Automatic annotation (TrEMBL):
The lineage of its organism: Archaea, Methanobacteriati, Methanobacteriota, Stenosarchaea group, Halobacteria. This is Uncharacterized protein. It comes from the Archaea. Residues 88-100 have a biased composition (Basic and acidic residues). It comes from Halogeometricum luteum. Residues 86-108 are annotated as: Disordered.
Length: 227
């Protein structure tokens, strides 16, 4: 019988996970939503969301100058035992690049099993979202960019803070200037929000074992473009 494991990199509550992802995309925004506004949107107690951010190790990434609870008062999450006992994994990156000494164009990277699993799970989520958008929008889906997003976390678990971001380009060029977005979406941003799930579960198979990675945030955001 195949061994099955389950993990929640962001949070076991999908609303909390989605709110954390939404907070993370506020970084660098010229008009970021307030922390409490996002908590209220997901019907969460701001204190609960704050604790979740600290447990994830991203309080410096999303809370900025806001007052946060004493870090020592928040119990960090432990990595599941089934992740701690595994050896590192060599991950391959395919693509066009200068050939190596043996003529190969494949780059490899050694990483812990936990990091590899989270990278693979988020990659699967990203490709799932691409297919979903193409199924609903056809070629119009090319106007938005679906990518793996990352933040610097300080917690031991998860080792990598990864989610799926969906960028909706917004032309901010001055009137009479050449448009900064050559292929603007023909559909409104609200339509994109309607189509996307707030979180996604993915499954990764490895050496006869099945790993269910739950509540990966999927976050649409408007990305301004300037000349």
């Amino acid at each position: 019988m195949t061994a099955t494991h389950e993990l929640f990199p962001f949070h076991e509550d999908s609303d909390v996970a989605a709110a954390l992802g939404t907070l993370l995309v506020q970084r660098g925004s010229v008009d970021p939503e307030k922390f409490n506004t996002i908590a209220n949107r997901f019907n969460l107690d701001p204190n609960q969301l704050e604790v979740a951010a600290i447990q994830l190790g991203i309080e410096d990434e999303i809370l900025g100058v806001q007052k946060v609870s004493d870090d020592e008062a928040v119990i960090r999450r432990n990595s599941p035992d089934f992740l701690n006992s595994r050896e590192s994994v060599t991950r391959e990156y395919d693509g066009v690049r200068d050939s190596g000494p043996d003529g190969s164009t494949t780059r490899t990277n050694e990483m812990s099993f936990q990091s590899w699993l989270l990278v693979e799970a988020t990659k699967i989520a990203r490709e799932t979202i691409k297919r979903l958008l193409y199924d609903h929008l056809g070629d119009e889906a090319k106007a938005v960019r679906v990518s793996t997003q990352a933040a610097v976390g300080t917690a031991e678990y998860p080792e990598r803070v990864l989610w799926v971001g969906v960028s909706y380009p917004v032309d901010k060029s001055e009137p009479r200037m050449i448009p900064a977005v050559s292929n603007p979406p023909s559909f409104p941003f609200d339509r994109l929000v309607e189509l996307l799930p707030e979180t996604l579960d993915t499954t990764v198979e490895y050496q006869g074992k099945t790993f269910h990675v739950r509540n990966i945030p999927v976050v649409p955001f408007q990305e301004p473009h300037y000349h």
